[in-house]
Specification:
With about 150 residues, the protein is an alpha/beta fold. About 35% of the residues lie in helices and about 20% in strands. It has a 6-stranded mixed sheet with strand order 1-3-2-4-5-6, sandwiched between helices. Bound molecules: 1,3,4-trihydroxy-5-OXO-cyclohexanecarboxylic acid.
């Protein structure tokens, strides 16, 4: 987990799910060559420019992601989440996002709607305020911008 220390309008929790630790080397024709550290840095810089701090966490474990969402209640003002494959399977993540009542932005690097049938459904979209797909890693910057506007 990394945290930035810029002056603050509050903290944005930036969550990445399974296999996103392999960004940069994983199927680069789909996900590009940017690493997860680069993604966390560019997200934190965009957040810092808008006056937010970030806490960034990647986990391959569903429960760890659920725990991080729970911990955001009272410590974060919003959530950016790329849940990876859990997007398409996890009622637990959906319920966690719903439970903490924070604005959440769902991000997918690839355009999941151009891909396999099983990627067409997200358990998370209905409980997220915003969904960004297919913008590459710039989607994380767009997610910061969405929270910036939402949080006034
Ligand atoms: C992804 C899309 C998911 O379907 C996939 O399982 C991922 C990455 C994306 O960022 O495009 O791991 O969330």
């Amino acid at each position: 987990m990394t945290s930035s220390t810029a002056p603050t309008r509050g903290t944005i929790l930036v969550l990445n799910g399974p296999n996103l630790n392999l960004l940069g080397t994983r199927e680069p024709e789909i996900y590009g060559s940017t690493t997860l550290s680069d993604v966390e840095l560019l997200t934190s810089e965009a957040a810092g420019a808008a006056g937010f701090r970030t806490t960034c966490l990647q986990s391959n474990h569903e429960g760890a992601l659920v725990d991080a969402i729970h911990a955001a209640r009272g410590t974060a003002v919003g959530i950016i989440i790329n849940a990876g494959a859990y997007t398409h399977t996890s009622v637990a993540l959906r319920d966690a996002i719903s439970a903490v009542e924070l604005p959440a932005v769902e991000v997918h690097i690839s355009n999941v709607h151009q891909r396999e049938e099983f990627r067409q459904h997200s358990y998370l979209s209905a409980v997220c305020t915003t969904v960004i797909v297919g913008a590459g890693v710039h989607g994380y910057v767009l997610a910061v911008s969405a929270l910036d506007t939402l949080l006034g």
